[in-house]
Design a protein that fits this description.
By secondary structure, the protein is α/β, with parallel strands linked by helices. The chain has helices at 23-42, 45-61, 63-74, 78-95, 135-146, 161-172, 187-196, 209-221, 244-256, 276-288, 308-316, 349-352, 368-375, 391-400; strands at 3-8, 13-19, 106-107, 112-120, 123-127, 150-154, 180-182, 200-206, 226-229, 235-238, 268-272, 322-326, 340-343, 359-365, 380-381, 384-387, 407-408, 423-424, 427-428, 441-449. The structure holds nicotinamide-adenine-dinucleotide (NAD). This is Aldehyde dehydrogenase.
């Protein structure tokens, strides 16, 4: 049996091994899922809702355990990891309300009754990246299960630990065998089989744009619907009329959270030219106060990067860059990286590519039109923030920036009861929010003739 060795990113040391799934394992899991799904979809909606609430309760009882595992496996600070585990329970509770609310329509027709039904796809494949192993998994499996599907879930090879445990907790909570199965393994084997397997009827992929395009192409060949949550290069736009103190104090969290390994990271800060120097002056102490260190210690803001290879890739972005200042990072064998703030121009690599690490490019702009032009000068369109005390400007700019998730005078990106997803190369479709369960159904239209 082939195994995956897990490395603790805070020490660089291996700490756990688990079985690596094969293509045959996927086929066997899908066969079990097909059987489990039939019974699950046949349950009354209230019974499915109760089962999801029971699952949420078991997750709540294991928040501390899941959080400790995430610290070890992903290097997330303990406070963030607790939030993530709790978020899984919240998402489950939210979508536990969906089975009883998923309803079709009655269309007025002559000679009979025309009704639409929302029917589950059957088996859904959920492919998860390494940066938020628990939350992103839940965004897929919770609404999919609520809509009456079974789920096969592939965590990233680097960070499968918590997803595997969540799969075990589903069984402890009483979810039927085969309904939610977690298959750690390589994308080229497990992920590709989700795409090519005829009984996996929908795929949800979160990860890089490059792999997302390949997954979408594979799904197109199978005429299989796919939701894509991909990369980002989001802008944090700061106008001179903004509350600069607040904007600067919150900027480190908006890009260095999860060590910048966040699709919504505001990795470009666009500052109106007249406020540029003042903003950097205010940002420097905020970055110095950003606590980088032992992720298991309470109060740590940022842990290590996920791997040595990824850290080296992030470091390469600083070659030849005009680094304004850096935060701190511990010495030692972990994959540490001191956050960096770079003065940049729009053509610079650091201002164009997704870095997925704690490096932020700060660029000046001249006026509102220039800010919008720069914000949209990227292939991506996931998130972004706008800081201004001018309400009209906040409205105008938020409507003009081509991103799926924006916030004005805040850095909020994710509220599970609101839709989330990207425009342009950042994705296709939306997750979360009131409509997500419906996205895991197909509409059937039936006409019942009432005339002989
Ligand atoms: P990745 O694309 O390398 O891998 C993502 C997942 O896809 C992993 O589970 C991987 O094993 C699997 N995979 C790899 N090749 C595959 C294939 N050929 N077929 C099917 N599956 C395959 O991404 P990553 O490095 O794990 O994550 C980082 C990326 O994810 C970043 O670009 C980031 O912006 C993006 N991301 C986006 C969101 C969002 O919601 N928009 C959220 C988190 C991360």
């Amino acid at each position: 049996m082939s195994t995956i060795t897990l490395i603790d990113p805070a020490t660089g040391q291996p700490f756990h091994e688990l079985a690596r799934a094969t293509e045959a394992d996927v086929d066997a899991a899908v066969a079990r899922a097909v059987v489990a799904q039939r019974d699950w979809a046949a349950l009354p909606p209230g019974a499915r809702a109760d089962a999801l609430r029971a699952f949420a309760r078991v997750i709540e009882e294991h928040v501390e355990e899941l959080a400790r595992s995430e610290v070890r496996n992903s290097g997330h600070p303990i406070g963030s990891a607790r939030w993530e585990a709790g978020h899984v329970a919240q998402v489950l509770n939210y979508y536990a309300g969906a089975p009883e609310r998923l309803m079709g329509r009655q269309i007025p027709v002559d000679g009979g009754i025309d009704v639409t039904f929302h029917e589950p796809y059957g088996v859904v494949g959920v492919i998860v990246p390494w940066n938020f192993p628990m939350t992103i998994a839940a965004w897929g499996f919770a609404p999919a299960l609520a809509a009456g599907n079974a789920v096969v879930l592939k965590p990233a090879e680097l960070t499968p630990l918590t997803a595997v445990r969540i799969g075990e907790l589903a069984l402890e909570a009483g979810l039927p065998e085969g309904l939610l199965q977690v298959l750690p393994g390589p994308g080229s084997v497990v992920g590709e089989r989700f795409v090519s397997h005829p009984d996996v009827r929908k795929v949800v992929f979160t990860g890089s744009t490059e792999v997302g395009v390949a997954v979408a192409a594979g799904c197109a060949r199978m005429l299989k619907p796919v939701t894509l949550e991909l990369g980002g290069k989001s802008a944090n736009i700061v106008f001179a009329d903004a509350d600069l103190e607040r904007a600067a104090a919150s900027a480190p969290g908006a890009v260095f959270d999860n060590a910048g390994q966040d699709c919504c990271a505001r990795s470009r800060i666009l500052v109106e030219r007249s406020a540029y120097d003042r903003f950097l002056e205010l940002l420097e102490p905020a970055v110095a106060a950003w606590r980088v260190g032992d992720p298991s210690a309470e109060g740590t803001d940022m842990g290590p990067l996920i791997s040595a290879a990824h850290r080296d890739g992030v470091a390469a972005f600083l070659d030849g860059a005009d680094v304004a200042f850096r935060g701190s990072a511990p010495d030692g064998d972990g994959f540490w990286f001191a956050p960096a703030v770079v003065r940049a121009a729009s053509g610079d690599r650091v201002a164009r590519e997704e870095i997925f690490g704690p490096v932020v490019a700060v660029l000046p702009f001249d006026d509102e039109a220039d800010a919008i032009r720069l914000a949209n000068d990227t292939v991506y369109g996931l998130a972004g923030s706008i800081w201004t005390e001018n309400l009209g400007r906040g409205v105008r700019v938020s409507r003009a920036v081509k991103s799926g998730v924006l916030s004005v005078n805040s850095h909020a990106s994710v509220r599970y009861w609101a839709p989330f997803g990207g425009m342009k190369a950042s994705g296709l479709g939306r997750e979360l929010g009131p409509d997500a369960a419906e996205h895991f159904t197909e509409t059937k239209n039936v006409f019942y003739a009432t005339e002989a």
